[in-house]
Design goal:
Layout: E1 5-7, E2 17-19, H1 22-31, E3 39-43, E4 49-56, E5 63-70, E6 79-85, H2 89-101, E7 106-111, H3 121-142, E8 149-150, E9 154-155, H4 156-161, E10 168-172, E11 188-193, H5 201-209, E12 213-215, H6 224-239
Helix pairs in contact: 2-3, 2-6
């Protein structure tokens, strides 16, 4: 069994003893059922990871001793921003989880015309907290030591208005003439994916007017939970670290 990896959002230093927060303790003790003496890997998102040992599992706060720091990075050379129309339930969870595994740097949940999920207020806050948990668990599983940014939920209008001109904007289009292999290599890009039902025609026109280019991933129409992940995999194979 691989050494369990635990995200702990606090300063870490070799040779110190620290306490797991509630989420980390629940994951280590309740889910993984680790016992005192178990080896861990800790990371806090600042880069690199620490070897650690679980010292005790007392209810009031599990203690770990922090060992050697390893300057290990597993980030992609591509700076990929995923602009994802919010999908329902487990579909959105899957998209977030796999996007993290595929090396995305920033995820922007989008409210679009055809979005079937309407979020605001306390419901939005709870969903954002849930999505952040998905991202943390994905990083723990896949070995990333830096958490991708989860932006606050935005409208498509606001996202397109704020899009940096030096980022290559991509819009999936099954009738586009170019595929991922035809793109000019760039270190930074934004990938726009609609929700269930896709982007409305006016939204697609709006994205093109903002400089987004149509790119073709074969002749078939892909579901929202497939489209972004297929595009991310293709881009990483061509220009990133899946080569």
């Amino acid at each position: 069994m691989p050494t369990p990896r635990i995200y702990l959002p606090q300063p870490l230093a070799s040779g110190t003893t620290t306490q797991l927060d509630e989420r980390a303790q629940r994951h280590a003790v309740k889910v993984l059922r680790l016992k005192p003496g178990a080896a861990l890997i800790l990371f806090n998102g600042d880069g690199g990871e620490y070897h650690a040992t679980l010292e005790d599992t007392r209810r009031e706060g599990a203690q770990v001793s922090v060992g050697e720091h390893i300057a290990q990075e597993r980030e992609s050379p591509l700076d990929i921003e995923l602009l994802q129309g919010v999908a329902r339930g487990e579909k959105m969870d899957l998209i977030l989880q796999k996007a993290v595994e595929l090396g995305v740097n920033r995820i922007v949940p989008l409210a679009t015309e055809r979005s079937q999920v309407k979020l605001s207020g306390e419901r939005l806050d709870k969903r954002m907290q849930h999505w952040r948990g998905i991202i943390i668990h994905a990083c723990e599983q896949c070995g990333r030591n830096r958490l991708p940014e989860l932006a606050g939920m935005q409208t498509l209008d606001a996202t397109l208005a704020a899009h940096a001109p030096d980022r290559l904007g991509l819009l999936l289009d099954p009738i586009a003439e170019r595929g991922p292999h035809d793109l000019a290599q760039t270190p930074a890009l934004s990938l726009l994916i609609g929700p269930e039902g896709g982007l409305a025609p006016a939204e697609r026109d709006q994205a093109r007017a903002a400089g987004f280019q149509g790119v073709r991933l074969g002749p078939r129409i892909l579901r929202t939970e497939t489209a972004g992940l297929a595009a991310l995999a293709a881009l990483q194979c061509l220009y990133g670290d899946l080569r």
